[in-house]
């Protein structure tokens, strides 16, 4: 019962530690051997249970706790094994396993690889991470990590503090790999870096040394001489996430791999990620992790460490490798560099694919479709050179006619290709891929089988030597000299040897204790023959042969057991039959985001790394469903735009007619009073008839405007056009609600994320469409008769059945007026609209041919540079081209109004007042028209938008190239651009709606105004015109109030700052008290654990139970008291905070009320 309570408390502590990730991180200073200054390490130690509780959504907190914020890029070094760095961690393995030497033919080649790797790190990787402010993620016993640490240490020393260094270094490790070198951490004389870290990390010390020993015995055998002796990096400042790696008493590193992939995937959402690997991997064990990495959409670089000639196909490569392996096997070395082998195979497949693509392009006469320099390689190049209708046609044929494999077999033959390895009938991409996967697995399986055979042969040779011995002295001597050969296939566990020693006293099992840095080529456990005792016990030859035969039988039994294990796990047949590994290799070789290059070709490595650094999270191309959605959206844009233009023309024409009628009424009325009959029409009542006709015309126009309401329709349609364009661009850039988080998921997750983006885009377009069509009576027009979607999957329509008629624009005005007068729609009178301006259909003018190079196709996923070219630059050009035009018009209107004022004054001065009314009427009409078109507000909006977009463009162009790949910068670019355009659109809508309300108010009073104007005399009108109008001194009052307003704002900001400080203090207090609670729990648990370890038998005694209950009560009381104190303190602080905010707000509101009152006056 007590144990269950202890376990429950322990689980509660683990959960609290995970919630407070800061408690898991320790800042540790250590002194590296032969170093002149201390180094820093931020260490986070995680048990497997803690690692399992940390979800992917908490990875941001992990990065923040390790102070890894502010990075612009991620470079990940995957564990590259079986080189010098790996051998330094297994210093005694070559005596037992000589086949594990560095797999190079001679020392010159081995040193050449080391030097080339150092040059790649110093000349390419280090400048890249410094320039990009990158986070470098390393692995233990890794060639890449060791080489980078060696070249990065001087750079870190130059910057002094690690915080000033432009890059960050993070290590992932397993505690079992550092256990041996830190085993004596309690002894001050142990100076290894791992021992210093373990000495200061209480979580690492929680698990006993014997527990680590037992785990390593199960994994690497009883002999500690063959356990890993890896030490952590000694030359750099870094952060480290160390996993315990033990579950249920066994080694389990799956939590480390999952945690590392989730951590990198979280970073990849906003940052470009480069992962690379070289050398080898034990049994290709890391390839499934590579497959998971690339299936998440992240790039991976395979580095070939060997210098090889260029080979055109797999057959030539296989022949070359047979010759190379023959030389390597002569030296008794197996080829452990399977990752380098994989890299070379991938390189050959890429060469063949590029050559086949070139032939296919030449055969179909598509050489003209070279890639756009500004386009990115991750987007399907075909879609960059096809209109929407072309892509839909191609994709629906692919879906409808034949599947992937039939297309490869029955596709068009290359007419211009000659016979050769790349001829279409001699090359099948899928067959070559399968051959390549089998080739990689066979190579690794054969090398493992070769190594196992070598170990077994060494053991048999040693057993044969022992069998031929003829005396105890020779037997003992041969056993000592052949011990490492015997150990190559015998005694993984020494239980049988111990049993043999118990029954045969002449054989002793000697075990050496661990000594740091001790050389143990024969191992720490060895069988020794006591010759003197053996000769005294078994002096006769027959007895010697009998005892020798018993020992030989023991060795043969061990060898037979090892042979059985090797057949099951290390044979070629067993290795190639692993389906999950076959699929993982297939994914790596088949994915386009896997790149292969050779470290001896540094130019190639440099190009690949810089190319990979620009890769973002956009899909390669759109699906058929996405293309149909985009076509539908662009159809709505074109339809809304065309009808908005028409309603705009109707609205302006109606308003202009009303203004002209008003001017005509005034002119005729004034002229009739002062000049008789200006029209010289005989007969009484001519003037009244003309005025009546004008009034009826005005009434007709007013009534038709009220019925049609063109201005409201224009505003809604134009607003819908701008909103849809913004949503389309957000969707093409995958920003905002269309941000496909599948970039950090596996392949299926990314596909599902794209489907979610399509669903979100469809919902948004539907909302905009419904909002437009349900407004201002658009359902009573011909808008719904226009098709926006067609049945593409059954026939190739291309809108030929609904081709529009070619009639004039102004015809629409008459058709709309007549249709409204007749209560019908205009769909049967005119179907004119600018339909298909974005390549939706083949019959649209100008879209029957493929787009020219550098032209926007209106559908391909848009990279940031393409967004700048096709979205920002045209918007800036549009605003900048309109500003001079509207500025000139505004000056003309202002000049006309000023001129009319001067003329009116001159006419009044020369006693011609009757002309003043006409000029005033004209000037009023000009002012009304200026207010209707909103020139001053347009200039202000356009100038603001042009300035904002220009500044945004300059910011983007000033960013370094690597920062343009950072997701945060791309998101800021798109969101700020769309926000600016949306702000201009909303301001226009507001101004347009205000103008429409004014127009309606004017129209409703137009007839009443005309009648009043007819009855008024000229003297009354002149008196009204010359009545002085005095403005109140509002500006002076506001000027006097400004200091008070500023003081109130300052008081409010100060009060808010104090309130925020109170909140921060409250959070710090809660954290401190949580830490106290955690320490209380830990101390209680330690006391309980000590009780259980010191006196387990007395744990059930009444006194022990009472003491245990008191400890539980103490922890519970502390927890409840802490919660009560926290609630009371937070309640008080929140009350103070809200009172201070309320006081500052009420003071500011009072002043603004005074401002509004003065403005009202």
From TrEMBL:
InterPro entries (UniProt xref): SLATT_1 (IPR040884)
UniProt keywords (A-Z) are:
Membrane, Transmembrane, Transmembrane helix
Respond yes or no to whether keyword Transmembrane is given for this record.
Answer: yes
Residues of the region (Disordered) are 1056-1075, 1087-1127
The SMODS and SLOG-associating 2TM effector domain covers 867-988
Bilayer-crossing residues are 653-676, 688-708, 892-915
Q: What is this protein called?
A: SMODS and SLOG-associating 2TM effector domain-containing protein
- Provide the species name: Polarella glacialis
